[in-house]
Amino acid sequence: MNIGVLALQGAVAEHIRMVEREGAAGVAVKRTEQLADLDGIIIPGGESTTIGKLMRLYGFLEELQAFAKQGKPIFGTCAGLIVLAKEIEGQEEAHLGLMDITVIRNAFGRQRESFEADLPIKGVEGAVRAVFIRAPLIGRVGPEVDVLCTYQDQIVAARQSNLLVASFHPELTDDSRMHAYFLDMVREARA
Amino acid sequence: METGTSRVKRGMAEMQKGGVIMDVMNAEQAKIAEAAGAVAVMALERVPADIRAAGGVSRMADPTIVEEVQKVVSIPVMAKARIGHFVEAKVLEALGVDYIDESEVLTPADEVYHINKHDFTVPFVCGARDIGEALRRIGEGASMIRTKGEPGTGNIVEAVRHMRMMMSQIRKVQSMSKDELMAEAKNVGAPYELLLQVHETGKLPVVNFAAGGVATPSDAALMMHLGSDGVFVGSGIFKSDNPEKFARAIVEATTHYTDFDLIAKLSKNLGTPMKGIEISKLEVTQRMQERGW
Q1: Which residue of A177, B38, B147, B272 lies most exposed, with the fewest beta carbons within 10 A?
Q2: Which one of the listed residues B31, B71, B80, B245 is annotated catalytic?
């Protein structure tokens, strides 16, 4: 199974390490030509304005929209979540606009308000250590979206068929269960 | 729920990887930097080249500038405190700055002690010229390291020297026998436990950026090839002929640092980069990299 990690900017190596720990091959993706060989892709944490701008510049918007249309899974963490959302609060333009959610950027405040906490996630056994860094929140979800995790009644992880998002960073811990969950989605999509 | 953990502080720097952090002096420049794709901006009263030209004591920026920049961009805002000046750092933390640079670009406030950075919820980046200096700063709580280079010169030679030195020392430590590590810790003046981590992982425990002399897209790509996780550009952007174009080109060259066709294209008709200073023409007392230890 080949899992790409979009490598325009952000924490790429950490996701590759997690994917490989779960037995799949991890590939850093810098060009759209690489997408054809992938079974799924992760859009990592980073700065969403930077990643969004570079995605536009190199033609990733259309190519990733087509990728999702083929039913191939996409997992977005933090900036990746923002990039996948249909609506970004306070911003006119979304990026990929694939997932029927409205996202609120920097919802917890500035870096000094960044935190970690143990949270239960639907479909994953036991609590997961969730690391929030200048994290976004999901303010609204559409009818097709399944909420997987909340923190103080706010939505921080969700799934819409082949799309998975988390506002925290599972790649910054030693716990690869969220990645295992995503790889299960990829397996389902391939079957 | 825990704030200010080392994972949260170091993780913030991880999210900046592969990106360019730009020095800005006002809201207008901050907007240009964000639109060009900067991953963060450093809010300053003067860029290093102007600090060098002005002379005198250089201090933390006026909070008005920091707040003005915070208001107009959604990317992280960093600011500089003088080496050892923990009150300036506390003030910046109170302002809600996302990252503090304990920086040799400003006049040091303490010639013996750097700030105890464990005392802060906000993360710190510090400059280093070699592995010992990097690990001492990490020992004090720095969550991100950058080369010192020679700020405000537009000359990449010192940043290259520091990155080459760091990478060569990391490779050496990695290949050493465990028996040799304590002696090496003494030689380079690094905490043993941190040197042991470098030995086991083959990298610094935190993200390592290039800084101090980056002036062109090729400079940025060169530093990425030498092992930088990302790039700080100080005077290089807003001291060039066409800041917007330079900023965009440096962002793209940092992402695609192995694509030389693209870098060739990006370098065309960029206009004049900042003027630059030959390092041998700088008196030792004018070298900012000698500040701190």
Answers
A1: B272
A2: B80
